Structure formats: structure tokens, C-alpha cells
Amino acid sequence: MLGLGSALWQRLRQRWLLHRIELPEFAFLLDPAPPGEWVSLDCETTGLKVGIDEIVSIGAVRIVGNRIVASERFEVLVRPKGKVSVQSIRIHRLREKDVAQGVPVDSAVKQLLHFIGSRPLVGYYLEFDVAMLNRVVRPMLGWGLPQPKIEVSALYHRYKMSQLNGEQRHTPPEIDLRLLSLMNDLDLPLREAHDPVNDAIMAALAFIKLRQLLSL
Q1: Of 100, 101, 83, nearest to 46 (Cα)?
Q2: Structurally, what CATH architecture does the domain formed by 25-213 represent?
């Protein structure tokens, strides 16, 4: 439950964002989130440089309670303005002729915003995905994605730390936060990586399991 100060800050922030919004039709992003719902998302890009590289595909799934709503998935190819490097093709397997069939990034992000609504965002390496999306969202709306963000690797780190005794916490071991290691340790099924929907589903599975383990 939010304290009075936090609740007031949230109301003031919402008013400020509404005042600055460039496209009022997206004001729904600031509505109260549906209880017990989240959206897990992932972006595939031409590289890992936020200021230079581009999005080539976006995948997302809705989470309701402890269930992934697989029938309500979001998946879109994005047509970049620049070239797709050989190195990035090796990772996400999307060739230039594949992404040439995609939609402009502004259109893709608008579709994604309607899919997300006001639900909190879940992801693995989510900070990068949000930064890439905000390159489009900020000029479009006047501010970045306003939803709460939940990083799966941070939840996993919290869980692993909770398993340590007092002496171990004083000098904690290095915790392997790689997605493959995390999924294996949580005994969760793996899907083919670097497909945005598959990556979003794996992050969602880990989120659901960690919520249970941490009693969140």
C-alpha cells in the first residue's frame, strides 16, 4: 500500500504527464493498472547501442495472476531505416529481406502501447528494451514509458540472496544472472532464444515462479 506521500507524488506525477502529453489518445497509459496483470516484453535490435541501433522486432505477452495468456500475444516485425549487420542477423536470424516486410517503428510502438495499456512491464535486461522503445515514445508522447518496470534478473538475485545464511550473506558468492542459468536453476522450460515472443515468455515464466518463491 502506498504511503500518503507516495500516493500524492503519484497523483502529481500523473497530472504533470497528462499536461505534457503530445497525443491525448494515449492518456490511457496513465490509468490504474488492472489488478494482477503485467506485460512481459522483449525487443530484437540491430545491436546494443541505444543511440545508434534500431529495433527490428518486438514481442510481448500478457500475464494474469500466475498464468501467461498465450492467446493474447503481441508480435511485430519492424522495418529499420538502416542496414541490418551480419552480426545481428546471426543472433536474431532476421535478414534485411525479412524486416523489409515490417512496419515503421512508430506504427509498431503505437500498436505495442495499446497492447500494454497501463500494465507494469516485466522483462530480462528490460532496461535496454525500455531505452530502445523510449527513443520512439518520448518524441511521440513527450515522456517515456510510464509503467512500473520489473527486472527478472533482479528478482532472481533477491531470491538467491534470501537463500543464504548469515555468514554467506557477509561474503555472498557470485550469482550467475544469465537467462539460461536462471531458467535452469528455477527448473523452467527453455525456448529458442533471440525470438522476441519466446524471450518474453521465458521472462514471464521466471517472473511467475519468482513471485511464488518470494511470496510477492
Answers
A1: 83
A2: 2-Layer Sandwich (3.30)
Full-model pTM = 0.87
Half-sphere exposure (Cβ direction) of 207: Cα atoms closer than 13 Å:
31
Task: List residues bridging with 55 in a β-sheet.
Answer: 45
DSSP characters for 122-138? EESSHHHHHHHHHHHHH
Which pLDDT score is estimated for 125? 94
Q: What is the DSSP string of 190-213?
A: ---TT-HHHHHHHHHHHHHHHHHH
Cell numbers given for 122: 516485466
β-sheet bridge partners, residue 78: 103
Residue pair 57/196 in contact by the 8 Å Cβ criterion: yes
C-alpha–C-alpha distance, residues 120 and 182, integer Å? 22
| Helix H or strand E encompassing 38 | strand 37-45
**Interval 15-50: pLDDT, tens:** 777 767 777 888 999 999 999 999 999 999 998 889
Phi, psi of 17 (to 5 degrees): -65, -40
Domain locations in the chain? Answer: 25-213
